[in-house]
Every structure is written in C-alpha cells, then in structure tokens.
Specification:
The complex is a heterodimer of chains A (about 325) and B (about 280). By secondary structure, chain A is an all-alpha fold. Chain A has 16 helices and 2 strands. Chain A has a two-stranded antiparallel sheet with strand order 1-2. In chain A, helix 3 runs parallel beside helix 5, helix 8 crosses helix 10 and helix 12 packs across helix 13. In chain A, about 50% of the residues are buried. Chain B has one domain. Chain B is mainly α. Chain B has 11 helices and 2 strands. The longest helix of chain B has 26 residues. Chain B has a two-stranded antiparallel sheet. The chains are: A mainly alpha (about 325), B mainly alpha (about 280). At the A-B interface, helix 5, helix 12 and helix 14 of A face helix 4, helix 8, helix 9 and helix 11 of B.
Chain lengths: ~325, ~280
C-alpha cells in the first residue's frame, strides 16, 4: 500500500476548494446548507477513522464511542459547568483523548480482529454508561444543550463553517501525517508490524498516538454535532450506523490516503441521501451491500482504482480488470 | 432467576460453539452470526404459524435451511476474501449482517413476534423452583446439539477433515482434502447451530429482525472468555457468562447487563487473551 505521497500542490487545491465552499454558503438554501454540513461532518469523521484504520491498519469499529463521548462531555461541560462552547468542546476532546490513551495502551496490543471487537465493546460500554449515569447525562431522556444564538439562517451558516473547519482540520491532520515520520511508521506497522518493530519503530507509541489523535478528532466533531443537535440521547450519539457509514466512506474512497475519505465521504453522502429519499426501508441493507461490493471489488478504494496504467492513462479496461483481480486473488 | 440464567446458557452455548468452530477453522470472525440466529428463529416462526409444525420438530428444518444458506454464502461470497487480511472479512461479514437484517425487516416487518406452542405455560417443579418446561427442554436440546457437534468433529471423516484444515491448511490440501468444500461445510455447520439456537430462542424471547446483534456480541464474548480451540471452552464460557451477567445485574443494576458482558470481554482480551481454556489462534 505504498505509492507516492500526496504532493503539496494538492493542499493549495484544498485551500481553494475550502475558500470556494465558504463563498458558496451564502447561495445555498437551508436544506442544502444542512446537507453540506453533514457531509463535512462525515468527512471529518472519515479522516479520524483513516488515521487509525487507514494508516495504522487497525480497524476500529468503535469510532462512534468517541463521538458520543465528546458529545456528552461537551454537553455536560456546557450545562453543568456553564462553559462556552469553544472551551467545552476542546476540553471534551482532551478528555476523550485521555480516555483513548488509557484504553488504547492495552487494546492496541491485540491483533487486528480482536482489536476491532474490543473497540466495538468499548463503544457499547460508553453508550451504556451514558444511558445509565442519569444524573450527569440525562440517561435515556436525553440532554439539552444551550442554543447557539441567532436566527435559523445564521445558525445554519455557523455550523456549516464549523463543520467545514472540522473537515479541513481533519484533512490537514492526515496530510501532515502522510508526510511525517509518524505516518511512515504507521504505514510500516500496517504493512508488517513485526518488521517495523525490528526496524526500531516504537510500535506501541505510534499506535497509541494515532489512536489518541483519531479519538480527539472524533470527540471534537462529536461535541460540535451535539451542539448542532441541541438535544442528545444515547441512541443518536452512539449510533452504530455512523461507524459503519464512516468505514464505507474511507474504504470506498481509499484508506490510507489523504483525499480518499473526502471522495468517499461525498459519494456515500449523496448515495445515502438518494436512498433515504427513495428506498427508506432498504437503506441499511443497501449500505451493507455497498460495503460487501467495496470489499470484493475495490478494497483499496476509488483513488487507487483510478490510477493510470503503465501507458500513463486511466482506462476503463484497467479499472475493470483491477476489479476482477480483487474479487479473485484472495480465494482459498 | 439464577437457574434461569444457567438454562439460557445452554442455548447460548449452541451459538457460541458454532461461532467458535467458524472462527477456529476459517480464521475469520463471523459478524453475521447473530443474523443467522435470527433467521433460524424466523424459520421456526414460519413453520409454526403457517405449517403448524411444533417448534421442537422444526429444529431439523431450521438447521437444514441454515446449513444450506451458510454453505452458499461461504462458498460464493466469503470465500472470495478468505485469504485476504483479516479486516476485509470482518467488514464483509459486517455488511452481510446488515443485508440479512434489512431483508428480514422487509420480509417480516419490525413487529415483534413469538412462537407460543400449546405447552408454553406448563412448568415443572425442580428443587422447589418452578421452571417453564420450554426453558428446561431448550437447555437440554442445546446441550445435546453441542454433544452431537462434538461427535461430528471428532468421530466422523468430515470432522477429521475439518480439523485437518484447521490445523494446517496446506498440509490438508496436500493430503487431498477439498478445502473449498470443507470451508463451506464448516461455515454451514456453524450457521446450522446458530439456526438451532434461533429455533429454541423463538420460544423463549420475542422475535424481531434486530434480535441477532445481541447474540453476536454474546457469542464473541463467550468464546473469548472460554477460549477458542476447544468446544469445552464455549461450554464453560456460556455458563460463566450467564453467571457473570446475573452477578452484574445484582451488583450494579439491570441496565448494565450488556455492558457487563462487554466489559468482561475487554478485560479478558487485555489480561488473558487465550481465554480460560483456549489455544491461541491469532
């Protein structure tokens, strides 16, 4: 899973895109603003997952646990300690990072399958805690956060910018990671952890850092999400569909790349929205089917699929034969 | 109530044993296992409500149906990524689970259903405690099936082939074992056990398309606790898990039942990944 690293030119393209999106905001309707905000949120989450799942190769099924943790911590800080949003969300992020660090050390020692289950279990435990610690979290009855000031239109734009910022921050984080020694270390770990250790990479430290970064980002986004929703309850903050959707986005776009999650995020969001409108009852199943198809035919993601062939061009034939190879090469 | 927990353990054992066999031989974690339990329950529901077949008698039917379904899914879908890095099969079975649950939702709607045979309310007095006959019978059936599976794995030719494949894939191929077929059969056997458990559960709990996820998690927790590699591990794990759940409810409170199972899971993974009786596979 090597390949050339992301060139700095793409960061310029990214900044231009962000600028354009900011300018665009005044022309979008309320619905479009909210839809775009959701896309940005998912891109941010996808990048968070990308750090631990895409780069380090440790599939986490519990990302939503940290989203919920961040959301609830933000809510608690705002309601019980009266903190403003900015401080609350940063504290929530740091708190989650701390939890991630503590839990991460033991569970990152586990091999891939067990780690995945452990993360799933951690997310479930966090959800149950939120559900049961009613004095802090309101339990099943939910928690209300203070409203952001301003009119509906202003609120829409406020969160649009906020989530766009999150997506941008996440992508920049991954971009930095992609080119830094930490990123090289993580890729080595994903490729062959034993060999990486032999080469002198402190695998535990690198993995824990990745996990902590991932959780911090997820928690901060979770806090923003909570503030946006204003009313949170365990079912919505710890929604497993969020975990799954994020994973599909990253895998479909390209795990371990900088822009894969962005591409995947946009594609799946549009697909999901379309399905939601037309096939509500089959929404979950279609996502599952998409997941299966992605694993079978494009496990490295769209970004890898559209790479030019030896002749230097992207050809349909090349793409189709890659897909066919992927479906066959891992058979027993 | 304690006894009730232990009796349910008999059924959990079926699920866990099937899961353990699949994990041990195919070296994958079948996240869709709970969905197969759910399908077994619905098969019995269909047998009972449309064909008026007694639930216990529908056991062979649900097991056969689930075996075929499992065999086909493995042979033509999961087999394609079986040699890939583990996370790919994880995600594949995850997606499969979603597809199965959604299909069940479309076929039978989300309304809760139950299978209530004529003898459902009969109880038996054992040691001063009144136990529903259905629950007691399910416990014994669960254990019986586990025993049958044990015999299958250790005394029959197919069982030996499965064990060979588990121990050393390439060596098994060298001696002429049709590995593709064996993989599919093993998966089918695992899903058949899940289906049987589903049949039993259809009488003990309400049936819904989403009932499976709880059992997937429990099966995993039980297998981790008891240890993969020995069927006795799944058996021991089921009993211990049942007890731990009761302890958790008594000590901390009813809402924490599932959380206790998960907490146990994480703790076991951290401190003793092999489980109580297991041999390490990963």
């Amino acid at each position: 899973m090597g390949g050339r690293r992301q060139s700095p030119k793409s960061i310029i393209a990214l900044i231009i895109a962000v600028f354009a999106l900011v300018l665009l905001s005044s022309r979008l309707s309320g619905y479009q603003l909210r839809f775009a905000t959701t896309i940005f949120m998912y891109i941010g989450l996808a990048q968070a997952w990308n750090i631990i799942g895409g780069y380090a190769g440790y599939i986490s099924l519990g990302l939503v646990g940290f989203v919920g943790l961040g959301g609830y911590l933000t809510g608690i800080f705002m309601t019980q300690s009266g903190l403003p949003f900015a401080s609350a969300v940063i504290l929530a992020g740091l708190g989650s990072a701390l939890v991630a660090g503590l839990i991460g050390v033991p569970i990152l020692r586990l091999k891939a399958g067990y780690f995945a289950i452990a993360t799933y279990a951690v997310a479930q435990v966090l959800r149950e805690l939120a559900n049961n610690m009613t004095e802090f979290t309101g339990g099943g009855m939910g928690l209300s956060l203070p409203l952001a000031g301003g009119s509906i239109a202003q609120i829409n734009r406020y969160f649009y910018f906020l989530m766009l910022g999150m997506a941008f921050f996440g992508t920049c984080l991954v971009y930095y990671l992609d080119r830094a020694p930490l990123g090289y270390g993580l890729r080595a770990i994903k490729e062959d952890e034993e060999a990486a250790g032999v080469l002198g990479i402190n695998t535990t430290a690198y993995k824990v850092i990745a996990f902590v970064l991932s959780s911090f980002l997820a928690a901060v986004i979770g806090g923003t999400y909570a503030y946006w929703l204003t009313f949170i309850e365990p079912i919505s903050m710890f929604d497993p569909v969020m975990s799954i959707t994020t994973i599909i986005m990253v895998m479909m776009g390209g795990a371990g790349t900088v822009f894969g999650p962005v591409l995947g995020g946009v594609c799946i969001s549009f697909l999901s929205e379309y399905l939601w409108a037309k096939f509500l009852s089959a929404h979950l199943g279609t996502l599952g089917l998409a997941l299966i198809l992605v694993v079978l035919f494009i496990p490295k993601g769209l970004i890898d699929l559209f790479k030019p062939t030896a002749s230097g061009r992207v050809s349909l034939r090349g793409i189709l034969s890659s897909m066919r190879d992927n479906a066959v090469k891992y058979q027993a | 109530m304690l006894i009730s927990g232990i009796l349910l353990g008999g059924v959990y054992c079926c699920i866990a044993v099937g899961f353990s066999v699949i994990t041990g031989v195919l070296k994958i974690f079948n996240f869709a296992h709970g969905a197969f339990v759910m399908l077994g329950a619905y098969t019995t529901y269909v047998c009972f409500s449309i064909f008026k077949i007694d639930p216990f008698l529908s056991l062979p039917i649900s097991m056969a149906v689930l075996f075929v379904i499992g065999y086909l899914f493995q042979r033509f879908l999961i087999n394609r990524v079986i040699r890939a890095p583990l996370y790919m099969t994880l995600i594949l079975t995850f997606g499969l689970d979603m597809v199965l649950v959604n299909s069940a939702l479309l076929a039978w709607t989300g309304n809760l259903r139950a299978v209530v045979p004529s003898y459902a309310s009969k109880t038996l007095a054992v040691a001063g405690v009144s136990i529903p006959v259905v629950r007691l019978a399910s416990f014994f059936v669960g254990l019986l099936l586990t025993l049958l599976l044990y015999l299958l794995m250790n005394k029959t030719k197919v069982g030996k082939a499965i064990n060979a494949t588990r121990m050393d894939l390439d060596a098994a191929k060298l001696v002429g074992v049709d590995v593709t077929n064996i993989y599919a059969m093993t998966f089918g056997i695992g899903t058949a056990m899940a289906g049987a458990a589903g049949t039993l559960l259809s009488m003990l709990a309400s049936i819904s398309p989403t009932m499976g996820s709880m059992y997937s998690s429990k099966a995993f927790a039980i297998c981790v606790l008891g240890g993969f590699g020995h069927m006795a591990g799944a058996l021991l794990g089921s009993l211990v898990m049942g007890l731990l759940e009761m302890v958790g409810v008594a000590l901390i409170g009813p809402g924490y039942q599932e959380a206790t199972a998960f907490a146990v899971l994480v703790l076991v993974l951290i401190f003793r990944p092999k489980g109580l009786l297991g041999k390490e596979y990963f």
